[in-house]
Amino acid sequence: MKNFTIIIPIFNEVESIFDLLNEIKSEFRSDSFEIVLVDDGSSDNFQILSKSLNDNIKIIKHERNLGKCMAILSGVKASTNNLISVIDGDGQNPPAELKKMIRFWIDIPSGEKEFALLCGNRIKRKDTLIKRFSSKVANKFRKFILNDDCNDTACALKVFSKSDFLKVPYIKNMHRFLPALFKMKNGKIFNIAVKDRKRLKGESKYNFHNRFWVGIKDLLVV
User: Fold this and answer.
1) Contact criterion met (CB below 8 Å) for 91 and 201
2) Are 42 and 13 in contact (CB under 8 A)?
């Protein structure tokens, strides 16, 4: 596979990000791609340790935490490729699943790619009970209201084109609503079954309140 970008937004993920980068390099070792890593105002020592990374990884730093969506937007703007893929920096998304999604994209007929969006659909989530519950409720409510055709919008794994992404309106926390925003442009949503795994290092930045209630508020905006 050639000419695609992997965007990784991180916020205090120094314990997991280097292992993930090594795994990505191993998984995609025969492919031509770039990594754009967006440090969204981390307060850990990532910036010090990142000096050991080689030159084929672009690092963008936000001086303060601006949120996942702004981090993704910064990564998209910095990409030199039109084919964009997104993966979380906590290590719960296996890079092999992202590779499967990119291959799926390549096989989509060119006439069907305009505003197409590939969304990871986690088969068996490895999160805590409260995270699975809040996400399930929010997913069902969002899908009922917006009819956005996405089964698991909270899954970080996404594939889309840079040119399409930059044409949709920016909304805070829009990563939860990308399917609806792409569908508003008459795009097609593809749900790709992916594996999930447990977080082995670091701590989750999300809980019931900043998942569920924030999601409901943003739903009204959309």
Assistant:
1) yes
2) yes
DSSP code, position 55: T
Cα 69 to Cα 27: distance, rounded to the nearest angstrom: 26
Q: Please name the amino acid found at residue 50.
A: S
**H/E element holding 213?**
none
Q: Which residues contact 111 (CB under 8 A, 6 or more apart)?
A: none
Give the HSE-up count for residue 58: Cα atoms under 13 Å, Cβ half-sphere: 19
CB atoms within 10 A of CB 100: 17
Question: Which residues, 6 or more positions from 189, have their beta carbon under 8 angstroms from its beta carbon?
Answer: 116, 117, 119, 148, 149, 150, 179, 182, 183
* CA dihedral sign, ordered 200, 203, 208, 213: negative
pLDDT single digits (tens) 58-73: 999 999 999 999 999 9
Give Cβ neighbours of residue 134 (< 8 Å, ≥ 6 apart).
208, 211, 212
**Is the alpha carbon torsion for 100, 102, 106, 112 positive or negative?**
positive
Q: Rounded to whole angstroms, how far apart are CA atoms 57 and 22?
A: 12
120-166 tens-digit pLDDT: 999 877 666 656 666 666 667 777 788 899 999 889 999 999 999 99
Q: Which tokens is 45 given?
A: 């020592």
Are 184 and 117 in contact, with CB atoms under 8 Å apart? no
At position 117, the amino acid (one-letter code) is: L
